[in-house]
Amino acid sequence: MPIEAAASTACTIAALAHLASTSLVAWRAARDRQRSASPAERPPITLLRPVRGLENHLEEALASSFRLDWPEYEVIFCVKDADDPVVPLVERLIAAHPQVRARLLVGDDPISINPKLNNTVKGWREARYDLVAMVDSNVLLPPDFFARLLDAWGEDTGLVCAPPIAGRVEGFWAELECAFLNTYQTRWQLFADLLGFGFAQGKVMLYRRSILEPLGGIEALAAEPAEDAATTKLLRAAGYRIRVVPRPFEQALGRRSFTEVWSRQLRWARLRRETFPFFYAAEIASGSFVPSLACGLWAWFAEMPVLPALGVLLLFWYASEAALARSAGWHLTRWSLPAMVLRDLLLPVLYCQGWVGKGFVWRGNEMRLAERASGS
Q1: Does the first or last residue of the chain, that is N or C, have fewer Cβ atoms within 10 Å of its Cβ?
Q2: Half-sphere exposure (Cβ direction) of 210: Cα atoms closer than 13 Å
Q3: Rounded to the nearest 5°, which phi and psi values hold at 201?
Q4: Which are the contacts of 27, defined by CB distance < 8 A and separation ≥ 6?
Q5: Tens of pLDDT, residue by residue, the chain (376 residues)
Q6: Are residues 171 and 281 in the same domain?
Q7: How many Å apart are CA 111 and CA 372, to the nearest integer?
Q8: DSSP string, 131-152
Q9: Residue 131 is assigned to a structural domain of this protein
Q10: 302 vs 4: CA distance, rounded Å
Q11: 156 part of a folded domain
């Protein structure tokens, strides 16, 4: 029957894509855990860290900026408001680490609807060096941070980036966010990089000013509501490749609420829909929900037991994710499986809400995707 054939085809393709993505990313992660990064050169680098407000494990994340094993670098913290509660923390860290050239810049350059980009512009303009690493405030930087970034740079590279790997997980809702991040979003980004289709992710991005400035500089990133999407389109159009660090860096989650997790995922979903609608359209099949429906239809029309067929599919699905997390050394506990199941049940709802809405709140900033830099 046509329905049976379509369902079996959809289920088979989804299962093969899942197996390919989990197994190849696991193989690469296991391989790269055994080698140390050793870039051919160690040029000076500017580290830009936009900050706003206080969050879990923030002091540890910002303090890691001063313990990098690199011969020459500077740290520039960027904050919009002088009365932001993060300012005393940053000033205390700078004073405690006089061996590292560091400073805090205050102010805002409203070139776009993206508050993070507006906050970072002043740091980009003040950067001393050609290499500039833009890193979110909640990323924990290991001593070999710069080495791992430069090790991924190739001759045709325009940007090296790294998605977040969730760690320091406290409570079930943080487990849910970890399930969204690690074996789902980060896995697909690493898989795309393996296939040669790497795309930028704003958590960690290493630029060369000598590449970006002729293309319009940091101001060119205002063309999209998200700086990573703008970077991807700009550099691809110029003929450059975007590469992803094989061993991404940890984001300490701490304790989360469901509202925090959902609002963050909804923001990212709407940004992906706005900037890459064709790829967003295919996301509905990326979790286990749609393949499970296809598997159930297939078994029903083939007059096979439906529940055992679903059980086999789901066992394979989540065992593959668990094996990936174990191979990569990522967070994995007894709560990971129920968090993955809940994630996949929520994905269709998230997908639909991603299509219908245009607004969201990011760290107190109300943003509407219909706006652009020219009209904001």
Answers
A1: N
A2: 5
A3: -135, 125
A4: 327
A5: 688 888 889 999 999 999 999 999 999 988 887 788 888 899 999 999 999 999 999 999 999 999 999 999 999 999 999 999 999 999 999 999 999 999 999 999 999 999 999 999 999 999 999 999 999 999 999 999 999 999 999 989 999 999 999 999 999 999 999 999 999 999 999 999 999 999 999 999 999 999 999 999 999 999 999 999 999 999 999 999 999 999 999 999 999 999 999 999 999 999 999 999 999 999 998 999 999 999 999 999 888 899 999 999 999 999 999 999 999 999 999 999 999 999 999 999 999 999 997 665 555 556 566 544 333 3
A6: no
A7: 9
A8: EEEEE-TTBPPPTTHHHHHHHT
A9: yes
A10: 7
A11: yes
CB 118 within 8 A of CB 362: no
Residues in the chain: 376
The answer on 12 and 45 residing in a single domain is: no
Tokens of 183: 């074996």
Clarify whether residues 22 and 43 are in a common domain: no
Task: Yes or no: say if 270 and 276 are a contact pair by the CB < 8 Å rule.
Answer: no
User: What range does the domain containing 162 cover?
Assistant: 36-256
C-alpha neighbours within 13 Å on the C-beta side of residue 253 = 27
Same domain, 105 and 212: yes
> 92-127 burial, b if ≥16 CB within 10 A, otherwise e?
ebbeeeeebebebbeeebebbbbbbbbbbbbbbeeb
* 20 and 52 belong to one structural domain: no
Whether residue 296 sits in one domain with residue 227 = no
What's the token pair of residue 360?
Answer: 């969201």
User: Per the structure block, which two tokens stand in for 38?
Assistant: 């050793």
Task: Compute the distance between CA of residue 187 and CA of residue 158 in angstroms, rounded to an integer.
Answer: 22
**Residue type (1 letter), 88:** P
Tokens of 279: 């790829």
Could you tell me what percentage of the chain is helix, strand and coil, using 3-state DSSP and rounding each to the nearest 5? 55, 15, 30
Which segments of the chain are extended strands (E)? 45-50, 73-79, 101-106, 131-135, 157-162, 164-170, 204-208, 241-244, 249-255, 359-362, 365-368
Residues annotated as part of the active site = 228
Q: How far is CA 89 from each of CA 49, 79, 126, 247, 322, rounded to the nearest angstrom?
A: 13, 12, 22, 29, 37
Number of domains in the chain: 2
